[in-house]
Specification:
- This protein is α/β, with parallel strands linked by helices.
- It folds into two domains: about 1-125, Rossmann fold, CATH 3.40.50.1980; about 170-300, Nitrogenase molybdenum iron protein domain (Rossmann fold, 3-Layer(aba) Sandwich), CATH 3.40.50.
- It contains 14 helices and ten strands.
- The chain has helices at about 1-20, 45-50, 70, 85-90, 105-115, 130-140, 145-160, 190-200, 215-220, 230-235, 240-245, 255, 265-270, 275-290; strands at about 40, 60, 95-100, 115-120, 170-180, 180-185, 200-205, 210-215, 225-230, 260-265.
- Strand 1, helix 2 and strand 2 (about 60) form a beta-alpha-beta unit.
- Helix 1 (about 1-20) crosses helix 5 (about 105-115), helix 6 (about 130-140) packs antiparallel against helix 7 (about 145-160) and helix 7 packs parallel to helix 14.
- The termini are far apart.
């Protein structure tokens, strides 16, 4: 039964190769080096390729790839977790480099079945995994020495951040996005929670898991002392004045004192090579806002 299902998948995938490219994609490995056509799936993988100078062959991306700007202008093949073989094969790729969340699994299997090189990179949402991810991408693109140098640089920045003394105990609220009159905030087991911990801020909503919308009553109860929000989220809300006018915000210390930190969520939460510097910048901004000793100012 398993062999039968696999045979059907293989035939389907080969048919797609004929229909979309005019020839079986199994011959992709016969391309000349200069004819390489790569698809990158995952914003963190795209950032890593760019940081390693290994992005010259990229011809398409998924919707999560928003940086660097020139890569964001490439054709999109869809959303990272909801891809289709038709869309991916339509750009006639010879290789796919993807993070572990690319899928569905069946689509990835179809790509491999027609002869594409499909490199899946482990991308756990942890700070410790950033350097390993860089090394893995570097290995796949024959840039091991550059990858090791970049990995060490990123690790040094994270080590410097971790060695800083703790900030004064401060309850922070991380707003991921906003819908209507209810902010959607980060609880535990999220990239945002990891970022807050890394810069020595306490997540006011750590008791809940994941991202949830919270109303005025919850805001008053948890009493965050400062707000962290992305620039995109703040702009969508209508600016800082609109933020403080959200129901319940005036009942919080953050709202009364109007303590706000604005971040680049793509750079910070994607856990790509930009994340360590973004975390250090967030720590510096938090120190300045809280009037703490500027210990991070002297750090790399």
């Amino acid at each position: 039964m398993t062999q039968h299902r696999w045979g059907i998948r293989l035939c389907y995938a080969m048919a797609l190769g004929w229909l979309l490219t005019g020839a079986p994609l199994a011959h992709a490995n016969e391309r000349e080096p200069g004819d390489e056509r790569w698809i990158v799936l995952g914003g963190d993988i795209a950032e890593t390729l760019a940081a390693l100078g290994a992005d010259a062959n990229i011809v398409a991306r998924d919707d999560t790839v928003l940086y660097p700007p020139e890569m964001a202008e490439l054709p999109s093949v869809g959303y990272l977790r909801q891809l289709s073989a038709e869309s991916l094969l339509s750009v006639q790729p010879s290789r796919v480099l993807a993070n572990q969340y690319a899928g569905p699994k069946e689509v990835i299997e179809q790509l491999a079945a027609v002869g594409l090189d499909v490199d899946m990179i482990d991308a756990p949402p942890t700070l410790a995994a950033i350097a390993d991810k860089v090394r893995a991408v570097a290995q796949q693109t024959n840039r091991a020495s550059q990858g090791e140098a970049l990995a060490r640089e990123l690790t040094n920045t994270l080590d410097s951040l971790a060695s800083l003394p703790p900030l004064p105990p401060t309850r922070a609220m991380f707003i991921l996005q906003h819908s209507g009159l209810t902010p959607r905030v980060a609880g535990s087991n999220t990239a945002a929670h990891t970022a807050l911990e890394a810069v020595s801020l306490d997540n006011a909503f750590a008791a809940m898991e994941g991202y949830h919308s919270v109303g005025a009553e919850a805001l008053a109860k948890e009493a965050p002392e400062l707000v962290v929000i992305s620039k995109r989220g703040l702009d969508a809300l209508g600016g800082e004045a609109a933020l403080w006018q959200l129901p319940g915000m005036a009942l919080t210390p953050a709202g009364r004192d109007q303590r706000l930190l604005v971040i680049d969520d793509q750079a910070l939460l994607g856990f790509g090579p930009r994340a360590p510097d973004q975390l250090m910048a967030l720590r510096r901004d938090a120190e300045a806002l809280l009037g703490a000793a500027t210990t991070a100012q002297a750090s790399p």
